[in-house]
Amino acid sequence: MEPKFTDKEAALCGSFMLAFNKLEQRLVPKWSLRDITKLFKRIVNQEENYSNFLNIKVTHNIMFYILSSVSQVELKRKSFENGKSFMDKILDLIKIIFMDELHLNEEEIENLRHCFLDTPIIKSKQDENGINRYYLMKYQIGISIEFLNNLFNSNENKNSSNTTDLETLPSLSNDLFKVLLSDNEEPILLTEYKTFLSKQFLKDTIPVTVNQESTVEQLLGTSTFLSKTESKLFYLKNICNIMKNLQKKL
Predict the structure, then answer these.
(1) Within 10 Å of residue 63's Cβ, how many Cβ atoms?
(2) Which residues lie across from 54 on neighbouring strands?
(3) Of 35, 111, 26, 124, residue with least CA distance to 77
(4) What share of the chain is helix, strand, coil (3-state, %, to 5)?
(5) What pLDDT does 153 receive?
(6) Residues in a beta bridge with 209
(7) What is the pLDDT of residue 199?
(8) Which pLDDT does position 194 carry in this prediction?
(9) Edge-to-edge strands of the sheet including 121-126?
(10) Residues of the chain whose pLDDT is less than 50?
(11) Measuring CA to CA, which residue among 245, 246, 226 is closest to residue 234?
(12) Number of Cβ within a 10 Å radius of residue 86
């Protein structure tokens, strides 16, 4: 398969970084070469595992990389000139920088907005090799969730039910999508789920809070050594366990 990420697009990412860093905002730190490196690693990973990703382009990666850490309230707050939000400004920059190279029009810019804001749902689709696989879809883009086959490997009616249930858990499914979009070497912070996960493994354990009497042993607990890929897969599977357990309670 020929690489889809061109030298021209790589250069335009640099142009985007310079333009973004001139934007007067305090929601996201200014980009450095480290951010460009992380962005390129995501794109390289997606090209090397192209059957796991559907319709994801450099513009999607830029948008998710910048906006994923911003709250929904701040995303939509009209805090810029002409009543524009932070998301509007990022989409404007993407359009200006990549318009000629990717032939972007207003409809495609709005599609980018939908790809970020839409609630992920699980769908069975054919990959580029004609093989049916399960994907976590956000509007027109998707990421394979083959490691979830044990949860979604029954008949089509049950798949539809799982899809419907998943829509009631937008926070979890959105976080899952963002993690899957990242490269295996990229650090992921999942603080919201740590207490829930600990209770799944140790049902009777009382959570330890940080105070003056806390010991190192209490805070660190038992250590387990995992590779970067193994640790990421561990958390992905447990996020999915959270989703499945919550679905049973709905």
Answers:
(1) 19
(2) 142
(3) 26
(4) 60, 10, 35
(5) 47
(6) none
(7) 57
(8) 58
(9) 53-54, 141-144, 132-138, 121-126
(10) 150-166, 250
(11) 226
(12) 21
